[in-house]
Specification:
heterodimer; A: alpha/beta; Rossmann fold; six-stranded mixed β-sheet; four-stranded antiparallel β-sheet; 25% strand; globular; B: mainly alpha; ABC transporter involved in vitamin B12 uptake, BtuC; two-stranded antiparallel sheet; 12 helices; binds adenosine-5'-diphosphate; binds magnesium ion
């Protein structure tokens, strides 16, 4: 479903501040794969996700989605295929708008916007059903402004928004790191459930090694701009916390 | 005195269309658009020259709106396609419009003598016509901002990154939002030209500051969230601003000091700590962390 071929990326090229961040990443992700991505700070994980999503373009290499070369496709066009959740819970929602309004826009992912009522037809009912799955009581508060919600609530809504219009790929970048422990575990459970139910291919960056081991069917470790470990299926299941920790340099 | 009050309300109604335009760019789109100083006289020039040429005044007024939309689209395209900064895009359009407005009028001042206008000299006629236009516009805009495209335009000013990650092209929305904003400003210019009986190339100077003053006064005195409430409060802000100005002039303020006084007033509101928060000039894309902490957990 996703294929990265020889991805190189550096910043500040040709200056004294040049940093080579990605040094030839080759990676193939299949339909239904749920990859947990780990690695030291600065290993290039966020840069890799940005290149997949089109927020950054590689210096060399290709990005293919379902066999189609999307290397030069602008970010918003790739947004039709890719759902994203960022570390900052404030990034994924529009604070001046209501929960319903935010979710209504998410339902339009990949579709043309028109002059129809954004909350007309069965849109509200669909949003309510979707919010009910969170069991946070938000289904009764569709008209509440998103700016008034807690970080955990906003992140929960962001995950719904990222997945409700059935994207092909879900990118999660340390999306629980800014939350308190309770909210973080709630969001982790939610992530696991939604990815399981929808079967969407997902890449989740995390610094929590137990989550990285317990969640998903594949674990990738990045180190210095390269893939240092790619454990799939049984190999991943056999991997222990200690072994993983020992691999951090 | 009563006559003066009517006069002030009539002006306030006509100018409130402009203030709503400024509200759309500054508050909804979060875009500091300076092209309105050129699109206001553009509307006046377009309507006045068409009316002087014998065109139906309603068509001329509509043409002013469309001309303003085109001007707003230029600012939007300069910003999104040519990647010129917000401020400079607006300034470029405003500057170019100065020459364009002179070309449209053929001279720097175009009087409208004995022409048929959308208003007549009868008492209360202008108030009624401007009032109807304002109410219709508020209803239409209110509805618009609840359509899919309208919702997306609101989200653009609130969190553009979210829209992009939802696969929505923000460039087109920005151009559309700025078109709408400048169209309204130009429409307001055409109403004022018909009201005062002439179009003048210099009549746009300070439009942006007067618009902002109206937006801020409305937010301070009425405020609240929700699109309908905001639109009404901006319109009310414009009328209140006109009243304050006319009172100040009655008290002896020379009309030439009007823009200085308005600018100083806006500066005071933007800087005095007790007004902060109400009149934040530029909302951050995401609110400061304090707001989230205050919220429930
Ligand atoms: N826009 C940028 N300009 C310069 N250097 C950058 C930029 N973005 C990231 N980097 C550098 O690239 C390296 C990798 O960053 P990142 O992909 O964010 O790592 P990770 O997410 O794995 O912690 C870091 O050294 C970072 O400083
Ligand atoms: Mg990172």
């Amino acid at each position: 479903m996703l294929e990265l071929i020889g991805i190189h990326k550096s910043f500040n090229r040709g200056t004294v501040d040049e940093v080579q961040v990605l040094k030839g990443i080759n990676l193939k992700i299949n339909d239904g794969d749920f990859v947990t991505l780990v690695g030291n700070n600065g290993a290039g994980k966020t840069t890799l996700l940005n290149i997949i999503a089109g927020s950054l373009f590689p210096d060399e290499g290709k990005v293919l989605i379902d066999g189609v070369d999307v290397t030069n496709l602008p970010e918003y066009k790739r947004g039709r295929l890719i759902g994203r959740v960022f570390q900052d819970p404030l990034m994924g929602t529009a604070p001046s708008m209501t929960i319903n309004e935010n979710m209504a826009l998410a339902l339009k992912r990949g579709k043309r916007l028109g002059f129809k009522w954004a909350l007309g037809g069965n849109t509200k009912a669909m949003i309510k059903d979707s919010l009910e799955t969170l069991s946070l009581g938000l289904e009764e508060r569709g008209r509440a402004g998103v700016g008034l919600l807690s970080g955990g609530q906003r992140q929960a809504i962001t995950i719904l928004m990222a997945t409700m219009a059935e994207p092909k790929l879900l990118l999660l970048d340390e999306h629980t790191a800014a939350l308190d422990p309770r909210a973080a575990s709630l969001i982790s459970e939610l992530t696991e459930r939604i990815v399981g139910e929808t079967g969407v291919a997902a890449i989740m960056v995390t610094h929590n090694l137990s989550s990285a081991l317990s969640m998903g069917n594949r674990l990738i470790m990045m180190e210095g701009g390269m893939i240092a470990l790619d454990a799939k299926g049984d190999e991943k299941k056999r991997l222990t916390h200690e072994e993983l920790l020992a691999m951090y340099v | 005195m009563q006559g003066l009050i009517f006069l002030t309300i009539e002006q306030g109604l006509a100018f409130s269309v402009m203030a709503i335009g400024v509200y759309i760019s500054f508050r909804i789109l979060n875009f500091a658009d300076l092209s309105v100083d050129g699109s206001f006289p553009l509307g006046a020039a377009t309507a006045a020259s068409l009316i002087a040429a014998g065109v139906n005044p309603y068509m001329a007024t509509l043409a002013a709106f469309i001309a303003g939309m085109a001007a707003g689209a230029v600012t939007g395209l300069l910003n999104t396609k040519a990647h010129i900064s917000e401020l400079l895009s607006g300034i470029l359009t405003m500057t170019a419009l100065y020459s364009i407005n002179l070309r449209i009028m053929g001279k720097s001042n175009l009087p409208l003598l004995n022409e048929r206008l959308i208003i007549t000299d009868e008492p209360l006629n202008a108030m009624m016509v401007f009032g109807i236009i304002l109410v219709v516009l508020i209803v239409l805009l209110y509805a618009f901002f609840y359509t899919e495209i309208g919702l997306a335009i609101r989200a653009l000013g609130s969190n553009p990154k979210m829209l992009i990650s939802l696969g929505i092209n923000t460039d087109g929305l920005k151009v559309l939002g700025l078109s709408l904003s400048n169209g309204l400003v130009a429409l307001s210019g055409s109403l004022i030209a018909q009201y005062q009986g002439f179009a003048d190339v210099g009549m746009g100077i300070g439009t942006i500051v007067i618009g902002l003053a109206s937006v801020i006064i409305g937010e301070m005195l009425i405020g609240g969230s929700g699109i309908l409430r905001s639109l009404i409060s901006v319109a009310a802000g414009s009328i209140i601003y006109r009243m304050a100005i006319s009172l100040a002039m009655r008290a002896g303020m020379p009309p030439t000091d009007l823009k200085l006084v308005t600018a100083v007033g806006v500066i005071l509101i933007l800087t005095l700590p007790q007004f902060k928060g109400i009149a934040k000039f530029k909302r951050p894309v995401i609110e400061p962390a304090g707001k989230v902490q205050k919220a429930e957990r």
